[in-house]
Structures are given as structure tokens and as C-alpha cells.
Amino acid sequence: MTIYYVNSATGSDRNSGTGQNSAFATLSKVESLKLKPGDSVLLAKGSVFNEQFDIKYSGTESAPIKIGSYGTGAAPVIHSNGDGIHSLYASNIVIENLKISNVGSAGIYGGSVTNWTVRNVEIAKTGQSESAGAVTFRSSKNVTVENTKVSDVKGDGFWIEKVAGVKLINNSVTSANGSTADAVQVNDSSNILIKGNHLDQTDASSPKGVIALVRATNAVIEDNVLTGGGFGISAPAGKTIAIRDNDISGYHGYDWSFAVGLGDQGSARDYDISGNHIHDGAWGVAVSGPVGASYTRTNIKVHDNTFDDLTEAALKVDRPASGSFYSNTIESGTKATSISPSIAEANTFTVKDNETVANVSTTLAATETKVAATTEAAAADPGVAAVHDNLKIFTDNGEAHRGNLLENDSSDNDTLVLRRFDGESVGKHGLTLTGVYGSIHVERDGSYAYTLDETKLPAGHDGHVSETFGYGIDDGNSQHSDGDTLTVFIHMDDLLR
Which letter does DSSP use for residue 405 in this model? Predict the structure, then answer.
């Protein structure tokens, strides 16, 4: 397992590349090597590489090949007339802590690849030809992209096609531009998780939308904030699709604009659309399709959503479909349903137990306050047991130190949720706080990322310093709860050697 260093400013391709003081100068020199499982290629921060980086060799699941960065300063940047990073057939690859910008095609392109992870990458001004997504994967397996920022690109933010196993987690896309561009386009793929992303097409020069999920199988879209575009989520055909706990707003421009739409490009079966806040748009959930098409729309459940500030109805069903619309909250002034007479007469799409309220904002705020107060007041309960957590930092390279607060905790029903952290409520999009010596981001599932700020460490201090955060958890339904602490120990002697 060899670490290769590349520095565009001080390196030389005549060097060995195996030390920071003997770094290579170019990516093409790395391409001439036969990388082996467990090898790492680290690009010096502050470096700029004006060339496409081709990844030709594979790692293993236990020893992936890693492409990352080292040093201090701004992330290394890759520019290219083609793709930024390109690969065909390579497996078990990790790409992290880089920037890719001003490239002619995709920022990252993977074709027929397996087990790829992309994280903490910034991608901007890609796809000058508008022919590719900023992040493109085709005919591949097990692709994860997390904590990655995509902005001001031509073409789709993400283009995923024929991929089995897709995870897009905690990313942001701002302004995917072009005549056919969506923030995220996923075609003919399966086992999909799109979670915790912030996707904003408000200022994009695109007539399309935010997420297009076409002919998907087993997909979950949850806890995302989706803004702008001609539509929020288009899931026109697929089976076993869950769309839940998203905030969808600002979709305008057309009389057909919808927050969630399905049924117009193929058969749709087993959709669960729940817990979403849908507002500031035209239609809410649209079950529709072309006239005369033989598509089926079966078992479509729309429930426990909140609808407000819509110019059209919360629910539209104008093609044959079976399903239900129940337990939703609808602000007065927003029409609840628009169901064609023939479907209403057939009674295949039932409507029941929905509530109309005068002001959705007041209702939502009251609910959040009640949940927070209940969690805060709850005493330690034997149904849930929280155990103290420690994070010990001996070395630091500027990256976040990660863990999970709930791994050593337990509950009677085997379900745990992080509700409060250091006196603040943990929302569905997590919580970020600034501590004494760094910042921390936590999610409801207990995962955390602590980033040390060395400028806050006391000069000349021996031994270690520490800071402590309190947290509260419950069993997912607030019937049982408990609280404990996370203490971060920063070992100064080892850190400053």
C-alpha cells in the first residue's frame, strides 16, 4: 500500500512520488503507474491541474484506491477540456476532498464501475457542452456520493443511469443549467437512497425540475429540501417508491407544475408519499399521464403531508389509478382534490380524514414546540438507555472526525432517534453548532462530524483540552427517552508534534 503525492507547484515527474518532498508534478505521471489495492494518490492543497485524471485500476472492498488531498490551504483543483476525473471498469474507488471546475464535460464520470464513494468534493462550471451531468455514472453498481457541492453547471447536477445501488446523501446542487437539466436525474436504476440533500433550481436556466426519477425500483427520497424548477420530484414510472419528509417549494412556470408527479411515462406501483411539506407552487401531488396510454397506477398512498400556498389542488388524479389520500393537512384557500368524475365514480382512489387549517405555519410551529418540550421535559426512562460517548483526537489533517452517538445506546423497540443536541432541537436536516475548539454537525440518526479549528487551541498548552456536548434521544415515538454527553478530547502533545 503506497501513498503517492502530487504537487503542481513544487513537484517533478522525475521524483519518486512517495514523499511530500519528492512529489510528482502531474496527474499523467500517476496514470503511468499501475495502482494497487490500498494505494492512495494525494494532491497538494493549493495545486491546480490542467488535465483529465483517468483512473484505470481497481482496489478491493477492504483496500480501495483513494484519491484525496494533503497539506493546508484551498482544496486542489482539476481543470480539463474533457472530464475532470474519468474511469471505465474500475472498482472500489474513493474520491474525496477535491475541487473540480471549468471542465468541458463531466466533473466525475464513471462507466461500468463498482463500489465508488465520492465525498467532500466541490464541482462547479462543468459540462460546457451541456452533454453530461456534473457527476455521471452509467451501467454501474454501488455508487455513493455524499457531502458534495455542485454549483452553476451546464447539464444535470447528477446523471445516474442503469446503476444498481445508489446513495446520494447530504449533497447540494445549486443551478444546474441547460435545456434538459435537472438537479438530479436517475434513470432505470434500483435500490436508491436520496437523503438530506439541498437542491435549488430557483435561478437555473432550465425549463425542467429538481429530481427526475424514471423507471426506478426500490427508491427512497427523504429529508431533502427541494426548491424551484418546473417540478419538485418527477417519478413518472416505477415500483416501490417512498417519497417522505421532504420540503418542496417554489416550483412554478407551467400550468402542470407539481411537487410530486407520477404515471405519465410508464406504470407506477406501490408509491408511499408521506410527511412532506409542499408549498408555494401549482399542483401538490399529480397522478396523471398521456391520453390513451395503457399505463397502470396502483396502490398510490398520499398521507400525512402538509399543503399550503398552492394555486391548484393538493391532489390531482385525472387518469385511472388506485390509492388513497388521507390524514393530510391543507391550509384553507388551497383546494384539496381534483379527481376526474369517472375515477371518483369508480371509487378506486379514496379520500378521507384530511384536515383543513387556517394557518399551516402556526400549526407546524405548534407541533414542533410540543415535540421539543416533551423531549426536553422527559426524565431518564428505562425504555431507552444512553451511554456516554468520547471522541479522542490525536492527529488532524483538516477533515471531519466522524462517529455515531447512538451506536452504544439501546431501546426496547430497537429504534433510536437523536432529538436534541446541546440544548437545540435536531431537525430533519440535522444541526450544526460551533463549539469551543471546533464545529460539529449531527443528524437525527446519531451520526456526527466534528471539525477541529486549530486556531482556537491554546498556545503552549501541554496534555489535552476538551469540550462536552449534551444530547437527548428517544425511541422514535417519544414514549421513552434518555440523555447523555459527548466529550471531545484533543491531545495537544500528539497533535502538535
Answer: T
Asked if 225 contacts 207 with a C-beta cutoff of 8 angstroms, the reply is no
Q: How far is CA 326 from CA 248, 303, 379, in A?
A: 19, 5, 34
Residue 68 burial (10 A CB sphere; 0-12, 13-18, 19+): buried
- Are 396 and 491 within 8 A, CB to CB? no
Q: Calculate the alpha carbon distances from 76 to 27, 159, 169, 258 in Å.
A: 12, 24, 23, 40
Q: Which of 4, 94, 100, 107 is nearest to 49 (CA)?
A: 100
pLDDT above 70: percentage of residues in the chain = 91
Q: Residue 470: what pLDDT?
A: 87
Instruction: Report the Cα 283 to chain-centroid distance in Å.
Output: 25
Tell me how far apart the alpha carbons of residues 409 and 203 are, in angstroms, rounded to a whole number: 44
The set of residues, in sequence order, having a beta carbon less than 8 Å from that of 374 and lying 6+ positions away, is 478
146-197 per-position pLDDT tens digit: 999 999 999 999 999 999 999 999 999 999 999 999 999 999 999 999 999 9
Q: Which residue type is seen at 288?
A: S
The alpha-helical segments, DSSP class H, found in 165-286 are none
**How is domain 379-495 classified at the architecture level of CATH?**
Sandwich (2.60)
Over residues 244-256, the pLDDT tens digits come to 999 999 998 899 9
Indicate the domain borders of the chain.
379-495
| pLDDT digit string, tens, across residues 366-380 | 555 554 554 454 444
Q: What is the pTM of this model?
A: 0.75
Task: Give the type of residue at 41.
Answer: V
Task: Specify the 3-state DSSP secondary structure of 222.
Answer: strand
Distance, CA of 216 to CA of 463 (rounded, Å): 54
pLDDT of residue 412: 78
C-alpha cell at 41: 494518490
For residue 94, list its beta bridge partners: 66, 117
DSSP state of 444: T
Of residues 437 and 94, the one with the higher pLDDT is 94
